[in-house]
From TrEMBL:
Residue ranges constituting the Peptidase M48 domain according to the UniProt record: 205-410
GO molecular function (one): metalloendopeptidase activity
The record's free-text note on cofactor binding: Binds 1 zinc ion per subunit.
GO BP annotations, alphabetical order: CAAX-box protein processing
Residue ranges of every copy of the CAAX prenyl protease 1 N-terminal domain listed in the record: 27-202
Residue spans crossing the bilayer: 61-80, 92-114, 147-166, 173-196, 254-274, 286-307, 327-348
Family membership noted in the UniProt record: Belongs to the peptidase M48 family.
Membrane topology of the entry: Multi-pass membrane protein
Organism per entry: Candidatus Moduliflexus flocculans
Active site: 276, 357 (proton donor)
Protein name (record): Ste24 endopeptidase
One Pfam family in the UniProt entry: Peptidase_M48_N
């Protein structure tokens, strides 16, 4: 018989699934055969048809993937899989910390293996069909192994620390754990650009020339000390283009995909960099970090409360409570709050994108190169130009490109 915890968790899982399904259905209904006037002369009819087909294929594949994941999760849950695995893990005779690492590790590995066929199909069939994929089987396997290695080197010690805090640190375990996790997170932010990201991509300093000179001149005008300007070999995996800002202090860096440089003019690239610098100048990166730290503190505090509730374990048919199983079950119980937070974070992220756009327009002489860059990126990435507002609210961290261009044009007036 299901208790209140089980009812809440099951209802949340199903509601979240149905919300995504409704958003996808509305998004497909919003597709229009008519090219928006703003993109006349940019999208030809065939390329626009291809972008719509890309949206349809990804939406249907996403539905198949989420349905499979939902079915597997519910079968494992109601067949007593958590209790079965707990008995096996305890039977190995290790300490509670090691048992917890193995228990959670097995679940992660199984989930990864189950998702592997979908990832392979997405990369080597869908992305290949639409001309995006540049990932070779060797790169795909190497990425998996590197991810596994990072999980062992970084993830396992962090998990062990969390389990140890809640096992031995008493009533204030959540506070000590929060402080430790905050320090670790800041440390990882510090070393990631230099030590972690280069494991997956090659970062080459942007060579001297017109582009570098134009970017450095803009950075000086914007009072942004810039030393680490890199080209990332994005073409190693995909033809899609992007640029990003990461790190802080002396270790901050801006990276341009090589595919971005190949497809855009110097003024367009300077405008794109101005947008990225705008995120830094408007303190969006610091804002996101502070919100993430606060969020983890609230989550750990609530975790400390619910770990002592036997009903949470009964909901998953687990007879003997444990910190490691409680981490997983609380994560599922917390999902309604996570859903609401994600909606708020997406809204905040979209607002920040508008602010970064505004900064780029106000600090460059002409907005047209930035508009042109946004259009080229949309065409090259086969972006959906007419997403449904509900789908945007649920899933988009960036505003739809048409809305961004319209906002920029209003700034010109």
């Amino acid at each position: 018989m299901m208790n209140n915890y089980a009812i809440i968790i099951l209802a949340t899982i199903l509601i979240s699934f149905l919300l995504d399904l409704a958003a996808d259905w509305l998004n497909l209904r919003a597709l229009s055969d008519r090219i928006p006037a703003e993109f006349d002369g940019v999208y030809d009819a065939e390329k626009y048809r291809q972008s719509q087909e890309y949206t349809r294929v990804n939406t249907r594949f996403g539905f198949l993937t989420s349905t499979f994941n939902l079915a597997v999760s519910l079968i494992f849950w109601f067949a007593g899989g958590f209790q079965w695995l707990d008995q096996i893990a305890r039977g190995w005779g290790f300490s509670s910390i090691v048992t917890g690492i193995l228990y959670i590790g097995v679940l992660i590995i199984v989930r990864t293996l189950l998702s592997l066929p979908f990832n392979i199909y997405d990369t080597f069939v869908i992305e290949e069909h639409f001309g995006f994929n540049k990932t070779t089987p060797l790169v795909f396997v190497t990425d998996l192994l590197k991810g596994l290695g990072l999980g062992i080197v970084i993830g396992v010690p962090i998990l062990a620390g969390v389990l140890a805090f809640f096992e031995y640190a008493g009533a204030l375990a959540w506070l000590y754990c929060w402080i430790a996790l905050t320090i670790v997170t800041l440390f990882l932010q510090f070393i990631a650009p230099t030590w972690i990201m280069p494991l997956f991509n090659k970062f080459t300093p942007l060579e001297d020339g017109e582009l570098r000179e134009s970017i450095m001149a803009y950075a000086r005008r914007a009072d942004f000390p810039l030393e680490n300007l890199f080209v990332m070999d994005g073409s190693k995996r995909s033809t899609k283009s992007n640029a990003f800002f990461t790190g802080f202090g002396k270790h901050k860096r801006i990276a341009l995909f090589d595919t971005l440089i190949a497809a855009h003019t110097v003024p367009e690239l300077v405008a794109v960099l101005a947008h990225e610098i705008g995120h830094y100048k408007k303190k969006h990166i610091l804002q996101g970090m502070l919100i993430s730290i606060a969020h983890s503190g609230v989550m750990l505090f609530l975790l400390s409360i619910f770990l002592g509730h036997q009903g949470l374990f009964d909901a998953f048919y687990v007879k003997q409570p444990s910190i490691y199983a409680g981490l997983i079950f609380f994560g599922m119980l917390y999902s309604p709050i996570e859903l609401v937070i994600s909606l708020g974070m997406n809204f905040l992220s979209r607002r920040n994108e508008y602010e970064a756009d505004r900064f780029a327009i106000e600090t460059t002489p002409d907005p047209e190169p930035f508009i042109s860059a946004l259009k080229k990126l949309s065409v090259k990435n086969l972006s959906n130009l007419t997403p449904h507002p509900f789908h945007v609210a649920l899933s988009y961290s960036h505003p739809p490109v048409l809305q961004r261009i319209q906002a920029i044009r209003r700034l010109k007036k």
